[in-house]
Design a protein that fits this description.
The protein is mostly helical and 75 residues long. Helices cover 60% and strands 0% of the residues. Helix 2 runs antiparallel to helix 3. 31% of the residues are buried.
Length: 75
């Protein structure tokens, strides 16, 4: 539920042009989904976070990688 709420907040902030708030909410959503092992939702939140930063999906992750992806978090 927390992940969905954060993802909704991110989408709303993005619609309102509040990129920083949207990015922060998307990262919160990603962490919540990743902690529960919900990788598809974690990827969607990651894509939204990248979009808020003006980076295309598929670039380096924002924050720690979801568990089980085999990717290390950036240092």
């Amino acid at each position: 539920v927390q992940g969905l709420a954060a993802l909704d907040a991110a989408r709303t902030a993005l619609t309102l042009g509040r990129m920083r708030d949207a990015g922060e909410a998307a990262v919160r959503a990603r962490r919540s989904f990743a902690a529960k092992g919900h990788l598809p939702a974690a990827r969607r939140a990651e894509e939204l976070a990248l979009r808020c930063q003006g980076r295309p999906p598929g670039t380096e992750p924002v924050g720690p990688a979801p568990a089980g992806t085999g990717k290390d978090a950036p240092r």
